[in-house]
Amino acid sequence: MELIYKIVPADLWLQAEETGAFAGAPIDQRDGFIHFSTRGQVRETAAKYFAGADDLLLIGVDPGKLGEDLRYEVSRGGALFPHLYAPLDLAAVVFARPLPLGADGAHCFDGLVP
User: Which residue among 40, 48, 62, 70 sits deepest, i.e. has the most Cβ atoms within 10 Å of its Cβ?
Assistant: First the structure.
């Protein structure tokens, strides 16, 4: 199983854990779907949208548990990105781990993403 990934501010994720579902970050709610990245896309997503941000979590999700609400659609650079057109049921979450900043100011994915 190849996971898909969501980068989330820790405070938003805590709210999701309290309710049992993640309705998305403000950008997700504005766009009408939850943005995810594949293994090959998540580092670029972090650099482009979360540069220098701390107190983030990397959420690993089993796409097989998301059903027909998950669609791969053309986005940045013509690549297919996973988009979820429903709240994320936490039963599909494989892990939620801190996404630390390295000494160089970039996020460190060591041991998080194969």
Answer: 70
Q: Which residue has the tokens 């089993």?
A: 62
Q: What is the pTM of this model?
A: 0.93
At 11, which helix (H) or strand (E)?
A: helix 10-19
DSSP β-ladder status, 80-84 and 88-89: unpaired
Phi, psi (rounded to 5 degrees) for 97: -130, 150
Q: Tens-digit pLDDT profile for the chain (114 aa)?
A: 799 999 999 999 999 999 999 999 999 999 999 999 999 999 999 999 999 999 999 999 999 999 999 999 998 788 899 999 999 999 999 999 999 999 898 999 988 887
Query: Which fold would CATH assign to domain 4-98?
Result: ADP-ribosylation fold (3.20.170)
What residue ranges do the domains of the chain occupy?
4-98
Dihedral (Cα; 44, 1, 30, 18), 10-degree rounding: -110
